[in-house]
Specification:
Layout lengths: L4 E5 L4 H12 L5 E6 L10 E5 L5 H8 L4 E4 L12 H22 L3 E5 L11 H15 L4 E5 L4 E2 L7 H13 L13 E2 H12 L5 E5 L1 H5 L1
Parallel strand pairs: 1-2, 1-4, 2-3, 4-5, 5-6, 6-9, 7-8
Helix pairs in contact: 1-6, 2-3, 3-4
Length: about 220
């Protein structure tokens, strides 16, 4: 009997770090594969660090082979790509869409991804439009189990300094209670809660495409 393997893209980001930490503590997954672009030390004996070239599908395919589930929390910012929208697309669209295709090739049936609240391929907002295109692509001919997370502002301890985001988090603590009804989906949420729900749904054997916003994530 094979030992369950979980592969994680974006494991060094805010949600990814929380997810890795929780996967380490989880008894179901015996091996965690952390796909990275640059060498890092493994945070735990259960974690296998896989150095991959995301422009080379075969590199990614070898890294996720035999996985029971692939988690995708990969993403960038305008600041990191210095306003290069093509580079932004290569990271936020090309990588997850390619990975879903590779999941099919290696027989992995479960894909859990973080997009964003307001994701809509018809949006005039570049970020929301891009995330919408990602969702469209991975649900056109979906894997048996697809879980899409659409959080708003994420709270947590980031390694990098994002001044505007930190300001947004401070404001969110006051604004969150005011967001009721249809506006509740825009409440800021702790990355730890998102990661916890991602882990939870990855263990579900109910097939389909599922989306999770604020209420579904904290519920």
């Amino acid at each position: 009997m094979s030992m369950p393997i979980a592969s994680v893209l974006g494991g060094t980001g805010l949600i990814g770090q929380e997810l890795i930490s929780q996967l380490i503590q989880n008894n179901h997954y015996q091996t965690i594969r952390m796909l990275v672009r640059r060498p890092i030390a493994s945070p735990h004996p259960k974690v296998e660090v896989k150095l991959v070239d995301f422009k080379d599908p075969e590199s990614v395919k070898l890294a996720i082979d035999d996985s029971e589930v692939v988690f995708c929390a990969i993403g960038t910012t305008q600041k990191k790509v210095k306003g290069d929208k093509q580079l932004y697309k290569q990271i936020d669209f090309d990588i997850p869409v390619m990975t879903v295709r590779l999941c099919k090739e290696v027989g992995c049936q479960k894909f859990v991804i973080v997009t964003a609240i307001g994701a809509n391929s018809k949006s005039n907002n570049f970020y929301q439009k891009l995330k919408g295109h990602v969702e469209d692509a991975i649900t056109l001919d979906p894997l048996p189990f697809v879980h899409i997370f659409q959080p708003s502002i994420l709270m947590g301890d980031r390694k990098e300094n994002r001044r505007m985001e930190k300001l947004g988090i401070k404001l969110a603590r006051f604004i969150n209670p005011l967001l009721q009804g249809k506006w509740k989906i825009y409440r800021a949420i702790d990355a730890q809660q998102v990661a916890s729900k991602m882990l939870q749904v990855s263990l579900s054997e109910k097939p389909g495409v599922f989306r999770y916003r604020y209420d579904e994530i904290i519920g």
